[in-house]
């Protein structure tokens, strides 16, 4: 595998929402390229007669079934009166994902 270009590293960082410095691009280009080369080597090994395994303990799931929770802790009005900002009868919060330029 050839080394990743600076543009590819910048795009990966943007998609991952990682702020990387211009000085770190060459370092990450080499590291990501090394990882991809290693994965290619693993893919070339080929596994013969191996069945897919999702778990090896033999234990069954012990989680509870999903059920609607009926108990009300407080009314909608009580909840909304404590909210810092309300819009359309709902609590307005800051966006979790915002577009930002890291490089």
Put the structure in a nutshell.
With 103 residues, this protein is mostly helical. It has a domain at 1-47: Histone, subunit A (Orthogonal Bundle).
Describe this structure in words.
- With 103 residues, this protein is mainly α.
- It has a domain at 1-47: Orthogonal Bundle (Histone, subunit A).
- It is 36% helix and 4% strand.
- The chain has three helices and two strands.
- The chain has helices spanning 6-15, 25-45, 76-81, and strands spanning 86-87, 90-91.
- Strands 1-2 form a two-stranded antiparallel ribbon.
- Strand 1 and strand 2 (90-91) form a beta hairpin.
- The longest helix is centred in the middle third of the chain and has 21 residues, at 25-45.
- It is flat.
- The chain starts with 5 loop residues before the first helix and ends in a 12-residue tail after the last strand.
- The relative contact order is 0.15.
- The mean pLDDT is 84.
Give the secondary structure arrangement, pairings included.
Elements: H1 6-15, H2 25-45, H3 76-81, E1 86-87, E2 90-91
Antiparallel strand pairs: 1-2
Helix pairs in contact: 1-2
| H/E element order | HHHEE
* Secondary structure category: mainly alpha
Q: Total helix count?
A: 3
**Into which percent range does the helicity of residues fall?**
25-40%
Mean pLDDT: 84
Query: Shape, please?
Result: flat
| Low-confidence spans | none
User: For the report, how would you describe the main beta sheet?
Assistant: 2 strands, antiparallel
CATH topology of the domain at 1-47: Histone, subunit A
Strand residues, percent: under 5%
Find the count of extended strands (DSSP E, 2+ residues).
Answer: 2
Q: Identify the CATH architecture of the domain at 1-47.
A: Orthogonal Bundle
- What is the terminal separation in angstroms? 25 Å
Strand order of the largest sheet: 1-2
- What is the CATH domain class of the domain at 1-47? Mainly Alpha
Q: Radius of gyration from the CA trace?
A: 24 Å
